[in-house]
Write a structure and sequence with these properties.
- With 210 residues, this protein is an alpha/beta fold.
- 34% of the residues lie in helices and 18% in strands.
- Strands 5-2-1-6-7-9-8 form a seven-stranded mixed beta sheet, sandwiched between helices. Strands 3-4 form a two-stranded antiparallel ribbon.
- Helix 1 packs parallel to helix 5, helix 5 runs antiparallel to helix 6 and helix 6 packs across helix 7.
Length: 210
């Protein structure tokens, strides 16, 4: 079973997690896992409590195909320090790495962004780290995927999800664009894409199509 691991810290941004997880978890041979420094319950910015599936030390690297750092209010605190070794491990194995919102600021501090095109909430946030020198590769766009590294600003969870499912090979580029159109524009402005997507999901679940 392929696993997509979502790295959560306390006060994580729940709206950044939902779009990407809800796509991945629908597909056969894929499952979503949440990982944190400890198995104690975390509380999101929206007040949702989550008990992580595993600690960082319990991640199954043979199954893990993507590591996604979900933004929130704790990425500039000591709680984030233990994530660095996880990022290094994923990078060594050429696993897809994603970061959104202030998690991009943390990712910049690891040096991972220095050689790939990337984005974040704002360039000045990334420049807070002495380990960051990738200014020339910074893109003023909602989300970027380059060399298996995905970054997005905190207002772009749909764009983040679109790039992630393409990088993981769950949807091809055309399918990912149709999915994105459904959730960006809504059912009434993208009816053909909506019927396609929800029909596809029903078939995956063994339900009668529309």
């Amino acid at each position: 079973m392929n696993e997509a691991v979502f790295v959560l810290l306390d006060e994580f941004a729940d709206w950044e997690l939902a779009p990407i997880a809800s796509v991945i978890n629908q597909f056969p041979n894929w499952t979503v896992k949440t990982a944190a420094p400890a198995k104690a319950a975390l509380r999101s910015i929206g007040g949702i409590s989550v008990v992580p599936d595993c600690t960082f030390g319990e991640i199954s690297w043979s199954a893990c195909k993507g590591v996604f750092l979900i933004g929130g209010n704790s990425w500039r605190t000591p709680a984030a320090a233990s994530v660095k070794a996880l990022v290094e491990k994923a990078s060594e194995q050429n696993i897809v790495i994603g970061a959104i919102c202030d998690a991009t600021t943390f990712l910049a501090s690891t040096g991972v962004l220095n050689t790939v095109r990337h984005t974040g909430n704002v360039l000045s946030d990334l420049e807070l780290s002495n380990q960051y020198n990738g200014q020339g590769l910074y893109q003023n766009v909602p989300a970027v995927c380059d060399q298996n590294i995905i970054t997005a600003n905190g207002c772009a969870p749909l764009e983040f999800a679109r790039e992630a499912v393409k990088a993981l090979g769950i949807l091809d580029s055309a399918e990912a664009e149709k999915w994105y159109k459904v959730f960006k524009q809504g059912f009434y402005d993208a009816p053909q894409e909506a019927f396609w997507w929800f029909g596809k999901m029903r078939k995956l679940k063994g339900c009668q199509s529309f």
